[in-house]
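Q: My labmate handed me this sequence with no annotations at all. I'd like to see what the chain might look like in three dimensions before we decide whether it's worth expressing. Could you predict it?
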Amino acid sequence: MKVEYINAFIKATSQVFKTIANIDLSVGKPYVMPSPFEATNLVIIVGITGEIQGQAVIGMTEETAKSLASAMMMGMPVEKLDDMSKSALQELSNMIMGNSATLLFNEGVVVDITPPTLMTGQHIEVSTGSMKTITVPLNCPVGEVLLNISTKE
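A: Here is what I predict for the chain of 153 residues:
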């Protein structure tokens, strides 16, 4: 996968976090994630179609998700992940992926995205088959978010 593609996802994520939740991210060192991999206990999966095909898996702990949802909702406390907070997190992923698609389009790469799927639970295993997964750790005051981008070569 081209570095420019990964950079588009990182840039979009940083911009959306800052705009929507007033959260600054620091980017950790990207690495290749083997398949299958055990995800955190909350993941949001968004499919990628077009000139790049694959999926984005945005992972975080439930505590990080609650803090992030709270920040998105102007500090309203989120004690448990209810329908409203889950919807906010899914919308966050839509904004990240939509902005990523726009940045890629500006580079001449046309992609589309699928609606997000949010999953919670213990020991979530994600299998990407033959797709290569690049994981980018994103650190912020509310916790770590793992941006996993899997694409067909």
